[in-house]
Amino acid sequence: MPANTALELLTAYREKARRNPSADRRTLFKYLLWDRFRNRMILDEDIEEMAAASRNLCELTFRVIAREKPHMAEGRLAQAVRDQLRQFFTLNAPDEV
After folding, report:
1. Whole-model pTM?
2. How far is the C-alpha of 27 from the C-alpha of 13, rounded, in Å?
């Protein structure tokens, strides 16, 4: 499940980067989050905070998972999710770990 979210965000990130080559990472993250949370109750400030606090796509993916499924971001399960995301991005996008 975290790998599915990671794949969706990685694919969308690459597409956004291809369409907007001059956009910085934070802007691309905001675009991803706006698309991901369209038609949901989330404040622009929350999206801005998530984008600003994420140093890479792996961290952003964890924040998205924590927002969508809060139970996966607690306790031991949170560490398992982080490990799975780190493994996914190490294999598929090493520069995003």
Report:
1. 0.92
2. 11
Could you tell me which of 2, 68, 60 has the C-alpha nearest to residue 26? 60
- DSSP state string for the chain: -HHHHHHHHHHHHHHHHHH-TT--HHHHHHHHHHHHTTTS---HHHHHHHHHH-SSHHHHHHHHHHHH-GGGGSHHHHHHHHHHHHHHHHHH-GGG-
Rounded Cα gap, residues 93 and 46, in angstroms: 26
Q: What average pLDDT score do residues 64-75 get?
A: 94
**Please, are residues 85 and 62 in contact by the beta-carbon 8 Å criterion?**
yes
Query: Residue 95: is its pLDDT beyond 90?
Result: no
Largest CA distance in the chain: 39
